[in-house]
């Protein structure tokens, strides 16, 4: 395998959702201000600071991706991760985690670092492999941005515990090492892209490992309809369920889990809390970037709190009444 990742990964930047996303404020007319939220980050996400408090504006254009949903708490999520991993590794199988290279991989590494620092897991030293050159490169970029970490991550580093690195974390960069990893025995945890299994090295792992009942697949992100990830999640629990990978029908005998709560988007409470942290209510709110059900649910909750919200998309004809 390649060199250990220890000491490589250092940080995120203080942006609302993840590196590369940001809201902006426009003042074309000094008397009229428009604030666009962009993809608003989920509060209490590891490593990155919470979204900044917004300024007052005349028109707020607000995302609503999860306007009808509440995320699982971080404490519950880590507890479930520990429980599921303990069961998954009991039969010495592999745990495959399809993960986006940007954001999700680093978040999972942080939570594994916390897990392996606990009394229950400290002596187990299960090998964890990042089998994604892109994820490794992005993690190195974060390594140079420690000044932008949240307070928790900086405190961990100051105490000598790198927040998303540990002694049994390994990088897999070269393709020949990836090929060797396909054949190693468990127990092992393998993190690879792509997050929806549409390509990347995870497809090789699943092509070889999905049919083995000792293995597990942990999905930690949204699976769009029509992707292999969607098929594995939805058909993996059914007798005779299968997925097509590399144009081959693969029977799913591995256990499939979907761990909720990982998201680059704020939930309904996070969206409302962000709006209500403004010094004064915006004159109007326009909801975007959400399906009709999400927009309607968020619209109703904001109206209850006395906000002036433009009518959401009409699900029957797709018209926007704004």
Short overview:
The chain is α/β, with parallel strands linked by helices and 322 residues long. It has helices at residues 74-89, 104-116, 133-143, 151-158, 175-181, 201-209, 228-235, 268-276, 292-304, and strands at 24-29, 32-36, 59-63, 94-98, 128-130, 169-171, 188-192, 216-219, 242-245, 248-251, 255-258, 284-288.
Structure, described:
The chain has 2 domains: 24-70 and 265-304, no CATH class; 74-258, 3-Layer(aba) Sandwich (Rossmann fold), CATH 3.40.50.10890. Helices cover 29% and strands 16% of the residues. It has helices spanning 74-89, 104-116, 133-143, 151-158, 175-181, 201-209, 228-235, 268-276, 292-304; strands at 24-29, 32-36, 59-63, 94-98, 128-130, 169-171, 188-192, 216-219, 242-245, 248-251, 255-258, 284-288. A 6-stranded parallel sheet has the order 6-5-7-4-8-11, with helices on both faces. It has a 4-stranded mixed sheet with strand order 1-2-3-12, covered by helices on one side. A two-stranded antiparallel sheet has the order 9-10. A hairpin with a 2-residue loop joins strand 1 (24-29) and strand 2 (32-36). The longest helix is centred in the N-terminal third of the chain and has 16 residues, at 74-89. The protein is globular, with a radius of gyration of 21 Å. The protein starts with 23 loop residues before the first strand and ends in an 18-residue tail after the last helix. Residues 1-22 and 315-322 have low confidence and may be disordered.
CATH class of the largest domain: Alpha Beta
- Count, helices: 9
Give the strand order of the largest sheet, numbering strands 1, 2, ... along the chain: 6-5-7-4-8-11
Tally the beta strands: 12
SS content category: alpha/beta
Q: How many discrete domains?
A: 2
* CATH-assigned fold name of the largest domain: Rossmann fold
The helix/strand order is EEEHEHEHHEHEHEHEEEHEH
Helix content: 25-40%
What proportion of the residues form beta strands (DSSP E)? 15-25%
* Average pLDDT, all residues: 87
- CATH architecture term of the largest domain: 3-Layer(aba) Sandwich
For the largest beta-sheet, the strand count, sense and barrel status come to: 6 strands, parallel
- As residue ranges, the low-confidence spans are 1-22, 315-322
Q: Quote the distance from N terminus to C terminus.
A: 56 Å
Radius of gyration: 21 Å
The backbone outline, from C-alpha atoms, is: globular
